[in-house]
Write a structure and sequence with these properties.
Elements lengths: L1 H22 L6 H4 L3 H8 L13 E4 L7 E6 L4 E2 L1 H14 L3 E6 L2 E2 L1 H9 L5 E6 H8 L7 H37 L4 E4 L10 E4 L1
Parallel strand pairs: 2-4, 3-5, 4-6
Antiparallel strand pairs: 1-2, 7-8
């Protein structure tokens, strides 16, 4: 019974994260979002046991920027610690991927969050709790008004946060250029234009 509940939860989480990733402009096939519960069970829990989360991991690239790739990683450990973060980042390093999302079941330890903070200069890392993704989108019937509303609210929240972050970055770069670099004939290139792959200073 517990395995069945977990399978349903992970089916919802799997659909949600694929929708979120596609909304951000990454390549996601319709059948990856529209997979029904029975198909999900047959693929990921064929014997009726628990779902192997490692088989839910996936890679994708941005529709507009082919050099901007993303790795979505499901933690096998319910409480994410440094060991899990090392495993997550190791895979990203092997695949030369700078953006990653880790999905966890119960808890992100403070040590794991420190890893995310410490790696900000190298990787763009995000984390999502399974329960959050399930609560947000979790009716299993996308046509229900409440579900549609909840989905739109989360998209607005995530989109607004991104826009505010980019706006702050743009303002900071403009200030640095105006106050420090332009007077000496240099300019800091906005990393948004290079898909955050590098920071470049050029002659102005």
């Amino acid at each position: 019974m517990e395995d069945d509940r977990e399978t349903v939860r992970l089916w919802r989480v799997n659909r949600t994260i694929h929708e979120l990733v596609r909304d951000r402009g990454y390549q996601v096939a319709d059948d990856e979002i529209n997979i029904d519960l029975e198909t999900f069970k047959s693929e990921h829990a064929p014997t009726g046991g628990s779902v192997d989360r490692t088989k839910l991991n996936f890679f994708t690239e941005h529709s507009q920027y082919s050099n901007q790739r993303l790795f979505v990683f499901y933690s096998m450990e319910r409480n994410v610690g440094v060991k899990t973060m090392r495993q997550f980042i190791s895979i990203m390093e092997e695949r030369d991927i700078q953006r990653g999302i880790i999905i966890w079941a119960d808890k992100m330890t403070s040590a794991a969050r420190k890893v995310i903070d410490a790696m900000r200069g190298t990787f763009h890392l995000e984390d999502f709790e399974e329960a959050f993704l399930t609560r947000t989108f979790g009716s299993g019937v996308t046509g229900k008004p409440g579900v549609t509303f909840a989905k739109e609210i989360v998209r607005i929240m995530l989109g607004t946060h991104y826009k505010k972050t980019i706006e702050k970055l743009n303002n900071y770069i403009d200030k640095v250029n105006k106050d420090l670099l332009h007077p000496v004939g240099l300019a800091l290139v906005n990393p948004v234009k290079t898909a955050f792959l590098f920071i470049e200073v050029e002659y102005y």
